[in-house]
Write the structure tokens for this entry.
Amino acid sequence: MQIHDLSLERIKIKTDSENDRIIFVGAPNKEIPAETWRLLDKALQENLVITFDYQSLKDDKPRPRRVQPWQLIFDNGNWNLHALDVVKNGRRRYSLGEMKNIQLTKEVFTLPKDYDFRKMTLGSFGCMCHDYYLDFKIHLHGYAARYAKNRLWGENQTIVADTERPGPDGDGIILSFRSNQLYSIQRWTWQWADQAFPLEPKELVDDWMARRERVVKISF
């Protein structure tokens, strides 16, 4: 299994410390045991259902999982497994660092026809996505506005001047696009809180307002 960037295969890189001219920023946050890689490699190569124990943020203790492993994804410092939960018949993502007691089964599965994870994530916000899609409108100004103009954030993207809310320097814009990555967009919008605020949809506006209220209540 190739887990490195294939575009770098033709680049000859000396390994001595005086020639560190190409580096990767954002190394994995957690070291993954070699046995985990070995088992997942075999499962992916042979399309084998696997079982493991996993504790999600919502669970009070690790719980058994039985999944079809579909894809390994490196996103924001974490290795994730995109898989189909056989019991719940739903797509899930699991952090490799939290998967324990991985076991291979003899059950062979078939990937969905024309499977491509990249087609499932309508946006540029990592691997987290939902089954539903929303239309987003976000006001941006300052550096956030300049940064946003150079990226493609989702389907049907448009960028227009925000004449009602021009911002302190008159450079306000409205970024509009369609995506299924609400959770990541909520975090991204709040990240620019002094230079951005949401206009649509309600789910994004409510989340931003709730975060602001929590910050206001903090006493120092």
User: Anything to note?
Assistant: The first strand starts at residue 48 and ends at 54. DSSP finds four helices and nine strands in the chain. The helical segments are 34-46, 142-148, 182-191, 202-217. The beta strands are 48-54, 63-75, 78-85, 90-95, 100-108, 134-140, 155-161, 173-179, 196-200.
